[in-house]
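Hey team,

Filing this mostly as a record. A colleague (T.K.) asked me to run one chain through the structure pipeline before their review meeting, and I want the input and output archived in the tracker in case anyone asks later how it was produced. No errors, nothing strange. Just documentation.

Input sequence:
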Amino acid sequence: TLPTLTLSEVEARLGKPDVAVFDANTPELYEQMHLPGARWVKFNEVTAKVLPTDLQTTLVFYCSGVWCQASDEAAQAAVALGHTKVFVMPEGIFGWKKAGKALVAGP
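Output structure:
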């Protein structure tokens, strides 16, 4: 199992230069709402090309919520590619929204 981060732990890391946040939801949901600075990634097509070249960068993956496994699949791919600081935010975008945290719309 992958290590997890709480909503507050992710919020504290947003915008830091050594942190990359990835949204593993559908492109349509990503365009409706995503975390500030999050990049969309197709959960079952994670390659080195879409990830930071520095394997020490902290990677955070999320999808829709605790019932969704897309973020886990994407994160596992990052680990398989050699990344060592890989986390999942289990509450996902709907948990983030419910908590009243900042959201961004658009591509």
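Quick notes for T.K.: The first helix runs from residue 7 to 13. The beta strands are 19-23, 39-40, 58-62, 86-88.
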